[in-house]
Specification:
Layout lengths: L11 H7 L11 H19 L10 H4 L3
């Protein structure tokens, strides 16, 4: 898929098109953010420490019919 939107070098258009005034770190609840970071970090630590690899789905399962 080709990106047909021309953006400037600082990506001002992209930000104003896809984000609102509420999309900033000041709107985040620091405690909820901390708990999410801990959860994601724990998940990746567990996945990285597995003895076996996680099987990938077959390519036929990835395509829609």
């Amino acid at each position: 898929m080709i990106n047909l939107i021309e953006d400037n070098e600082s990506h001002d258009f992209y930000f104003s098109y896809h984000h609102s005034a509420g999309d900033s770190m000041t709107m985040m609840n620091p405690d909820l953010l901390d708990s999410n970071v801990v959860g994601v970090a724990a998940m990746f630590y567990i996945l990285a420490d597995l003895d076996n690899t996680i099987p990938r789905p077959q390519s036929s399962m990835l395509t829609s019919e």
